[in-house]
Amino acid sequence: MEVKMKYKIWKHVIIMLALCLLVVSCANKEKQKQAAYERGMSYLKKGDDKAAVIEFKNAAQVAPKYAPARYQLGLLYLKLNDPGKAFRELSRAASLNPANLDAQLKTAEILFLSHKIDESRSRINKILARKPNYAPALVVLSNLELLAKNIPRAEAAINKALTARPDLGRAYLTQARVLMAAGKAAEAENALRRAVKLQPDNFGFEQALAIFYMRNKQYDKAEKQIKAMRDIFKKSGRPYMMLAALYMETGRLSKAEDCIKSARRAFPAKTEFDLLLTALYKHQGKFKEAEAALTQALNRHPKSLSIKAALADFHFERHKFKQAARESAEVLKVDNKQPLARLVRAKLLIKDNSGQKALDILNALLKEQPRMAEALYQKGMALFGMGKLELARKEAAAAVAADPRLAGAHTLLGQLNLLSRDFDGAAREAAVALRLQPYDFRAAVIIGQSLIRKKEYRNALKLFKKMSKMLPDNTEIYANLADTYLGLKKPARAREMLEKILTLQPVNSRALAGVARIMSADGDLPGAITRVREQLRSQPDNPGDLLLLANLLAVNHKYSEALDICKRVRTLRSRGAGAFMLAASILKSQGRSRESAVMYQDYLRLNPDYLPAVMSLASVLEDEKDIKGAKTLYQHALKLNPELPEAANNLAWIISHEPKPDLGEALRLGLIAKNARPDNPSVADTLGWIHLQRHSYVLAASQLRQAVAAAPDNPAFRYHLALALKGQGKIDEARKELKAALKIKDFPERQDAAKVLKSM
Predict the structure, then answer these.
(1) pTM of the full predicted structure?
(2) How far apart are CA 404 and CA 436, in angstroms?
(3) Residue ranges of the chain with per-residue pLDDT less than 70
C-alpha cells in the first residue's frame, strides 16, 4: 500500500514538472517570436529589407502560426519582386487571420497579375462578402470586369470604390482605364488629373497621365507633362527616358539624341542611357555610332556586365560572331545568370543549327522572366530552324503580345505567313517590322516575296530594284529580282541577275541551277551542261555544282557519267544525302531496282532517320514485292512523322491487303492520309478499298467515285468502284464500270475484274 502511494506521488510530481517545463518553453518561444518580430520591424524602419526578412522568417519558424510575421514577410517579398514567395506568405497570413483584408487583397492582386482570373475573382468576392464597401477590393473587381469587357459593371465597381474612398489615388487610374474603354477620353483625362492632384509626388500617377497623352497622340501635352515630371523628380532618370521615347516616336531623332546625352551627363553612373543611345543609333542605321557609343560606355564603366553583354549582342547583329561569342563568354564567366549574355549564347546556338541547346537556355530564361519578349522571339527562331513552324508561330505571337514594338517577332510572323501562303498576312507583319525598324532587311525581302507570290511582279520589281541600289552587293536581292523577271516572262533578264550573283559569289549552286534551268527551258540542255562545266573549272570539287551537273547529265540520258559524278561527290561529302539519292534515282530509272535499293540502304546506314531515303527505299521494295520490308519502312517513316500522308496511305494499302488485315488500323491510317490529301485520287482509292473490305459499301462508293472522277483512265479505280456498286446491289452500274476498266489497259487486277464481270 505504501509503495503504491509513493508511486502516485512521484507520478503527480513528474506531470507537474512536465507542465511547468511546457509553460516555460511556451513562454520562451513567445519571447523569441516577439523579439524576432520586433527586430524585423526595426530593420524595416531602417530600410534593411534583407535583415528584416531573416528576422520575420525567424519569428515564423519559432511560431509557424504567427500571422503578423507571415504578413510582413509577404509584403517584403512583394517589395523584393518575388511574387511566388509573397503569395505563399500572404495566403498563410490571410488564412491565419481572416480579418486581415489587406493580405487577402494582395493575394487576389498577385493572382490577377498572374492571369489567374477566376481565382482572383473568387478571393475578391470573399473580401466583399465580408466588407462590401472595401474600396481597394472594388478597384480590383473593376479591373476584373474591364478584362472581361463588362464595361458597365467595371464602371459601377470603380464608382462605388470612389464613393467609399474619394482619397484613394490609384482608384482614379482604374477609373481612367474604364472610361477609355467606354470611349470617354476627356473624362479619363480628368480622372488622371484628380489622381495627380491627390498625390503630386507620386511618380506612377504622373507617368500614367503622360502615357495617356502619348497614346492619344496629344504629343504637345505629353511633352509638357514629362518636362514637368523632370523638374519634380530631379533625382530620377525616368522622365528623360520617357522624353527620349516621345521624341523617337514623333520622329524628332536629333532631339531624342540631345535628351539622352543630357541624361547621361546628369546621371553619369547610370548605364541605361548609353544603351538607349545605342538603340537610337541602331534605329537610324548608324551602326558605327552605335558601336562607338557602346565602346565608350564600356570604357567609362569597365565592370558593367550589362554594357558588355549589349556589345556582344550588337556584334551578333552585325554578324561579328566570333566577337559576340568571346564577349558573351566573358560576361557569363563573371555572372552565369546574366540574361542578355545568355540570350546572345542562345542566338549563337540557333545560328549554328543547335536549336535544342538554344531552347534549353531560352526555357530557363523564360522560367525566370515569363514575358521576356526577346527570349520568346528567339525561342520562335529556334523552333523555326528546327522545322516546328506552328510552335514557332505560337512563340512569335507571344513575343508580340509581350512587346508589340519588337520588330524581329513581326518579321518572324511575316516569314511564317509567307510559308503558309498567307501573303497578305506576311506583307502586313513585315510592314509593321519595317515601321519599327526601318533597316530590317529581312522584312523588306518578305514584302517583296509576298508581291511575287501574289503575281504583283511590277511592284516587286520596284522594291527589289530600290533595294539593289542601297545594297549593290547583296546576292539575295538579285535572286529575288531573278524570280521577279521570270514572273514577268523575261528569262534573259532573270539570267542576268543570276549571272551577277555568280560574279559576286562564284560558289552559289542555287544561282547556277537557276541559270541551267532557264537554258534548259529554252531547249538548250547541252548549253546548260557546258555552262555548269565552265563554272566547275574554278572550283572543281564543289559538291553542289557537281550534283547539278549529274542531274543535267541524267536528264540528257548520260547515266554512266552522272553515276560517276555521284560517286565522286560521295568521296567529297561522305554523309551528304544528295549523291546517294540521285544515284539511287538514276539506277531505278534504268530498271536497276536492286542496285537502287542498295544505294538507299547505304545512306540509311549513315543516317537511319533521313525521311526521303526511308520513303524512297520503301517504294523500291514495294515495287520489288518485298512487302514486309516496305511495311517496316513505312512504319518507321510514321514514327519520324506521324502525319506523313504518303506513308500513312501506302501502309494502309499494305495492311488492307494482308491475309488477316487489321482494318481498324488501316482505316485510321487512311483517314490521316485523307485529312492531309483530300483531293488525291490514290488516297481516295485506298480509303474506298478499306471501306470495301469492311463491307461499308456506301462509304466505299463515295470515295471510289471521287477517285474515278479525278483519274478516269485508271482501270483499278473503276474496278474497285464496281465492287462497291455490286455490294450495294447496283449491278448495272457495276457492270458499266467493269467494262470501262477492261477497255482501258492492262492492270494487275484485270483477271479478277474479268471474272467478276463474267459472274454478273
Answers:
(1) 0.68
(2) 10
(3) 1-29
